């Protein structure tokens, strides 16, 4: 309001204390943004610097001895790209299915019908209680889904939270009069859902796609528990071997050593690996962040609608 | 699956006939609901049935119901195990400290963001603080390994440059919680502001205008307008978070656990994974028993907290 008033010319002059407050706030946000963005910037500039400069931590503000050596090495990591393709598939197929299933159920739950209360209870209950990791794992094994691509798509297919956000959205942003008018014209639920609800749900489809898409892209735990075959690994699982070098999987050096022949010997491969790690972070994170930035317009709006009333 | 109660009586009034028609149309709603419902039944309720292996000596050959019933054997084994107390304490403390340090940050950020009156800067700041949320847990752990490395991490270079001694962060039990919680805040504090920002933007602008005319400073407006509006939602979030004091962020802890920091990083969720899945000779029944204990305790805490909050503040989840 104050900025609007300022533009209109009828400016209410800020007091001295307000000006101090504004200055403090500006400093505060500069610090916050520095803390939030500097680590990300550091990864970007390290990924295009010389390995030696990175190892000596000389890369602080700008790339040092600019080189694309790291990215060249990353392109050699065939296993990484195999898992990248897997993740693209799991994410696209899985999220598409998730969005469709969630929207259909959200529409059903936004209408009144006999038995709805019980269904609601049964669904909400799963949010607060689960069988636990081991029974879930054994269930998947008994269903014959262990170590298949299907499990990566079917696990976590519907999130209760997203379902509720979608239901709230449909309830609040699609007027009931529309439904009544459609019914008058003889529309069935199918007709109404496909012809009226879906075309009006652009925002919530965008929100759900980002939610589901990012969750699937970033998930490594499902693959860790449910997959054995390395050919099926999602990207995050291979990244784990590259990045988290002290965990039980052993040193990441074994991963890099496998590509020594194409990268000028073992020593050179390990040297390049120091930068390649940063490059791996970049190539794996960029899709998720880009998705967010492109969808951001719908996103913040849609999330707020869902969260305020949900 | 057709639900037809009350449909029979529909003779006479148009309203009733319409109600009967609605019920007959219901099967399409069930059809739309079915895929999601099938998912919940197969992937959530089947495992709940399978959790009985916690009371049995599970052998894959005999199946769930065919395995021998052993009662509370595995529960007793767990509660009398040497590390049981340590794991409970570690899980609880990790969540408690996470709550104490992590909870106020989004509120602070939301209030300060609301006070930024340069629109473009504000938009940029809001976009920027959401970004870390989209980074994966693996990458976050990788960043910790890279930045806090004892030999070539930037943090230790700064420490040694300032005359200090290099610290092997990821191997020190004392640094596990700060790293875990600090990175958690870095990643999610911005994202968690969404709810508070939504609350702040829903405040009637007239309140601010009236306050301005009465000569209130910005600080006074925060104190007397923003904060009272945020309290109900903050209380609700606090309640929700209290409900997860014993749940564990298994996937992240698994990445940050090393042989060196076990004294603090040994938490229940990771233990379930390592005993039941990662071990070469997986102990399904034992791990199920631990998992069941955790789930029951967490569920009880949520019910308790919910009841308390309903009585005290009328805010409750169900």
Describe the structure.
By secondary structure, chain A is mainly alpha-helical. Chain A folds into 2 domains: 2-68, no CATH class; 71-309, Orthogonal Bundle (MetI-like fold). Chain A has helices spanning 2-8, 16-47, 51-55, 69-76, 78-110, 116-128, 133-142, 149-154, 160-173, 176-184, 189-197, 202-218, 221-226, 235-243, 253-257, 265-309. In chain A, helix 4 packs across helix 16 (265-309). The relative contact order of chain A is 0.13. Mean pLDDT of chain B is 86; it is low at 1-12. A two-stranded antiparallel sheet of chain B has the order 1-2. Chain B has 2 domains: 14-62, no CATH class; 73-313, Orthogonal Bundle (MetI-like fold), CATH 1.10.3720. In chain B, helix 4 (84-102) packs across helix 9 (173-188) and helix 12 packs across helix 16. At the A-B interface, helix 2, helix 5, helix 6, helix 7 and helix 11 of A face helix 1, helix 5, helix 6, helix 7 and helix 10 of B.
Number of domains of chain A: 2
CATH architecture of the largest domain in chain B: Orthogonal Bundle
CATH architecture descriptor of the largest domain in chain A: Orthogonal Bundle
Structural class of chain B: mainly alpha
Residue fraction in strands of chain A: under 5%
Main β-sheet description of chain B: 2 strands, antiparallel
Briefly note the CATH topology name of the largest domain in chain B.
Answer: MetI-like fold
Mean pLDDT of chain A: 84
Short description:
Chain A has 310 residues and is an all-alpha fold. Chain A is built from 16 helices and no strands.
